[in-house]
Amino acid sequence: MPVNRRDFLLLRAGQPAVLSCERLFMRYLDAQEEDDGARLFAALASDLRRVRRVQLTDTSWRARADFDRRLTQTLDAFLRAGGRVEQ
């Protein structure tokens, strides 16, 4: 089975881990073509379970409401689990 590029870690390693909203948005657009947005955000949630802090970059890409809603839901779950988001 070929490895889908979205199956790779969505976060850049380090402390805090770095999440590029631009990069995630581009993957989100690809996922929409395949009706696979839920899988993308499930992968992000899984990645976030491996870190305690995440820094968001390129946050202007959150302007699209549907993307921002899904990202906010994922980040809210991360925060409830004790994670910290930095911008």
Q: What do you see in this structure?
A:
The protein is an alpha/beta fold and 87 residues long. The protein has one domain. The protein contains three helices and three strands, in the order E-H-H-E-H-E. The protein has a three-stranded parallel sheet. Helix 2 packs parallel to helix 3 (65-80).
Q: State the separation between the terminal residues, measured CA to CA.
A: 37 Å
The fraction of residues assigned to DSSP E strands is 5-15%
Large-scale geometry: globular
- Mean pLDDT across residues: 86
Which SSEs are present, and which pair or pack?
Elements: E1 17-20, H1 21-33, H2 37-48, E2 53-57, H3 65-80, E3 84-86
Parallel strand pairs: 1-2, 2-3
Helix pairs in contact: 2-3
Features:
87 residues, alpha/beta, three-stranded parallel beta sheet, 3 strands, disordered N terminus
Outline of this structure?
By secondary structure, the protein is an alpha/beta fold. It has helices at 21-33, 37-48, 65-80; strands at residues 17-20, 53-57, 84-86.
